[in-house]
Amino acid sequence: MLNKRLHMPLYLIAALLFGLKTYIVYRFVFNISLENPMQEFILFINAFVVSFFLFTLSVWFKERRQKKYIKYMILIGSLIIYFNIVFYRNFSDFITIPLLFQGSNAADLGSSVLNLIKPWDILLFLDVIIIWYLAIRKSDSLLINYRKRTKTMALALSIAFLVGNYILAEIERPQLLQRTFDREYLVKNIGLFNYHIYDAIMHSKSKAQRVLADGNELTDIADYMQENTTNNEKTDLYGIAKDKNVIFISLESLQTFVINNTVNGEEVTPFLNDLIGESYYFENFYHQTAQGKTSDSEFIVENSLYPSPRGAVYFTHAQNDYHSLPEIIGNEGYYSTVFHPNNKSFWNRDVMYENTGYDHFFDVDAYEVTEGNSVGWGLKDKDFFSQSMKYLETMQKPFYAKFITLTNHYPFELAEEDATIEKYDSNSKTLNSYFQTARYMDESIEEFFTYLKESGLYEDSIIVLMGDHYGISDFHKKAMSMYLDQEYTDYLHVQLQRVPFYIHIPGQEGEVISKIAGQVDVKPTLLHLLGIDDSNDLSFGTNLFADERKPYIALRDGSFISDEYVYTKDQCFNRETGELIDTTTGTADEESTCQLYIEQVEEELSYSDQIIFGDLFRFYNFKDENVIEEVE
Ligand code: GP9
Ligand code: MN
Question: Rounded mean pLDDT of 188-204?
Answer without folding.
Answer: 87
